[in-house]
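Field reference: "sequence" (input) and "structure" (output). Example, SUF system NifU family Fe-S cluster assembly protein:
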Amino acid sequence: MSFNNLDTLYRQVIMDHYKNPRNKGSFEGDHLTVDMNNPTCGDRIQLQLQVNDGIVEDAKFDGEGCSISMSSASMMTQAIKGKSVDEALKMSHIFSEMMQGKEVDIEGIDLGDMEALQGVAKFPARIKCATLAWKAMEKGVDEQEQA
């Protein structure tokens, strides 16, 4: 597939997640909630996780922001559901490295639609947008472990 076709496909995936976000909403009852924002551009997210016995059983988000931050949150919630907390944190590390333009070893890791965000690395001002949901997940897991 040529670069232009791949770039077009990635843009379509990002816009699909932005216009039709997966896992947008909130939980009733017991769950972990993390609020984060990116003051640079105004992106805001509330991430909710249901974690039991070290497994992310479900994830939802709400918020507002640019297409990159909202599509990344949608992709992330899909990717981490059913994963162990350790797997989710490993995915977060890999995603962060990818956003910094570093070579990453993704063997055995299913990044799903997140690969569509690879091009964000070329725009340093947008990296915080793409990583906002991931940072919220890391913060929430850290806070839960310290509780």
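Residues 29 and 101 are 39 Å apart (CA to CA).
The chain has one domain: 3-146.
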